[in-house]
TrEMBL record:
Recorded superkingdom: Bacteria
Organism this protein belongs to: Trebonia kvetii
InterPro entries in the record: ACMSD, Amidohydro-rel, Metal_Hydrolase
One GO MF term: hydrolase activity
Boundaries of every Amidohydrolase-related domain copy: 117-345
Any Gene Ontology CC annotation: cytoplasm
Keywords tagged on the record: Hydrolase, Lyase
Single Gene Ontology BP annotation: secondary metabolic process
Protein name as catalogued: Amidohydrolase
Keyword Secreted attributed: no
Length: 374
């Protein structure tokens, strides 16, 4: 079949389960995440960094998905992964961690710092070294600003071009809009590191008994899934309103898997708030908040028809396709069908901007994708 080639602003890799445990000294390794299933298989007890909580295990549908995911050999093997990508028509891709999604749950700075370095060294050895099509996200501490800056600068020196940050740091650390994080934004801009934010990575509330669940009852599954998208919007809002992006005009942000049509809407709301409540606004910005959001924040989507309209009808140029390989919400196994549906009747220049152009702006070091065959 003729292919539409695309880059992807969102994908995932599954590290070895014992990555941290095997690379850290025992006193720290004992604090890394560990889980024990109940005999009936319905719940498990998780221990992480001196904290214990229980969570419900996946439903039968989710278990079936996990079984199917194991067939995607590239989730664990960076060499086999290239075959999966070629089959799907995906060229370059931003790769997020799996273990690293725990980072905002750690509360011991020394532990988090050590885990992030171990993950970064492993990613360099096992993933980044395999292909220049891979944009592997570095990981940094979100507990201590100085640790984050040190690791970001080290990662940039090793060739990383992007750094993964959770949508919100641990509650014991300052939130992203606070001035404490200014050294990190400055360091990222100077190093040319893209801030890569994946939705749904707010810290886990270990005391609520509702880990991963915001709603129960009728509609809960859809509401819980939808709820995860808002965390990425809040991150973008914080960096615009706090002046972080205004002060660092060369700093770029990628919000992955959260859709794209929310960017113009959020920009309108922020512009209105800034204009109508200007007497109370602090800090004052040198540029319109909507313009900052529309130019410095990129957003990836996988199935949303409205994302294409955000470019064609609302003037948002930084729309980027993301396959979310190989997650349930993603397009693995039907990427070409999805692309052809999304871009049926859409001008070629629009398609190329969304599938390749926006990605190439953020990561110009990735070789160009092959020519489309349609």
């Amino acid at each position: 079949m003729p292919k539409i080639w695309t880059n992807s602003g969102d994908s995932h890799f599954l590290e070895p389960a014992d990555l941290w445990e095997s690379r850290l000294p025992r006193r720290l390794a004992d604090l890394t995440p560990k889980a024990d299933k109940d005999p009936d298989g319905e719940y498990e007890t998780v221990r992480v960094d001196g904290q214990t909580f229980r969570r419900k295990l996946p439903t039968s549908a989710a278990v079936q998905f996990l079984e199917n995911t194991r067939k995607a050999e590239g989730i664990r093997d960076a060499r086999l992964r290239l075959g999966d990508l070629d089959h799907e028509g995906v060229w370059g891709e931003v790769i997020f961690p799996s273990l690293g999604m725990w980072s905002s749950t750690f509360r011991t700075p020394e532990l988090l710092k050590a885990c992030m370095r171990a993950s970064n060294e492993w990613a360099l050895e096992e993933v980044a070294s395999v292909s220049d099509r891979y944009v592997v996200t570095a990981q940094v501490s979100t507990l201590v600003v100085e640790d984050a800056v040190t690791e970001l600068e080290w990662a940039a020196g090793q060739g990383f071009r992007s750094v993964f940050l959770p949508t919100r740091p641990h509650p014991s650390a300052p939130d992203w809009h606070m001035a404490d994080w200014e050294p990190l934004w400055r360091a990222a801009e100077q190093a040319g590191m893209v801030l890569a934010i994946h939705i749904g990575t707010d810290p886990v509330d270990l005391t609520s008994g509702k880990v991963g669940v915001a709603y129960r009852g009728p509609g809960g599954a859809v509401m819980n899934y939808t709820e995860t998208t808002f965390s990425g919007q809040r991150f973008a809002m914080k960096l615009v309103a706090s002046g972080a992006l205004d002060r660092h005009p060369d700093l770029k942000v990628l919000i992955s898997e959260g859709g794209a049509s929310w960017i113009p809407f959020l920009g309108d709301r922020m512009r209105e708030g800034y204009r109508q409540h200007h007497m109370a606004v602090r800090p004052k910005l040198t540029r319109d908040p909507k313009d900052i959001l529309m130019t410095q924040v990129y957003a990836s989507f996988q199935h949303d028809e409205s994302a294409v309209a955000a470019y064609t009808a609302m003037g948002y140029r930084n729309v980027m396709f993301g396959s979310d390989y190989p997650h349930m919400e993603g397009t693995y196994g039907h990427t070409q069908d999805t692309l052809k549906e999304l871009f049926d009747g859409v001008p070629v220049e629009t398609r190329l901007r969304i599938t390749q152009g926006a990605f190439a702006e953020l990561f110009p070091h990735v070789p160009p994708a092959p020519a489309d065959e349609v």
